[in-house]
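Lecture 7 notes: from sequence to structure.
We start with the chain below.
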Amino acid sequence: MAGFAELNVPALPDRKVLRGVLEAAARLGYSTVAVNHVIDFKEKKQEIPKPISSSELLPSLPMIPGKLKPIKIVTRLTLVVSDPSHCNVLRATSSNIRLYDIIAVFPKTEKLFHVACTNLDVDLICISVTEKLPFYFRRPPVNMAIDRGIYFEVLYTPAIKDSTMRRYTISNALSLVQICKGKNVILSSAAERPLELRGPYDVANLGLLFGLSESDAKAAVSTNCRAILLHGETRKTACGVVYTMKKPQPVEEEEETLPACKRAKTQV
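Predicted structure tokens for the same chain:
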């Protein structure tokens, strides 16, 4: 299994609190954390800011317990879109957008959800968990998003905070999982305090409550997150990203490939 990842830690204005959340994520065993900048065009006209570098957040990156390497911090941009015109910023060649490792979109209507699944060049689509969905998920656009390598995000922190939001979270997550059959789903926190974070195995257990199978729930905090980062690299470079791994040969196959004289020496 790939390392665990938490792909939604809000870029809080209080840097001290943000550092505390990042350090807590490292202690819980997450190897990758995404700092999320949220832009809501409905509130006021906003420009895309430059992402915060890891050196600005932490003078030295915290080490992952049990591993001899520090936590990896990546950048994420989430656009809350409630009007088709808000999607134009994704089609524009903005230099600041290209600086982010992950691009996510939070569509507020069924039409915009369909556009995000079929046309927008994004890595992640967020679904609402704090209110009843204003539309139903439909299989064709969801399947098209899966074919394009786009993933769907479900937040678990609202389910911890409030019983009403817990019902919405479970209901909306079940609706999504039923349509996508557990594929291309990740679980994130959007934690604004260290106490709101949960360990990766606890989050995987929450995934079972959301209708995911055991393997899909584990993938939602590990391999699926890695796939999103690879998709983001492909989007940024406009090229494919290939990772190779050497497969170890069994001992018997190694002996068969040796010359007869060497094989005789090894058998003595």
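Points to note: The first strand starts at residue 5 and ends at 10. The chain has a mean pLDDT of 83.
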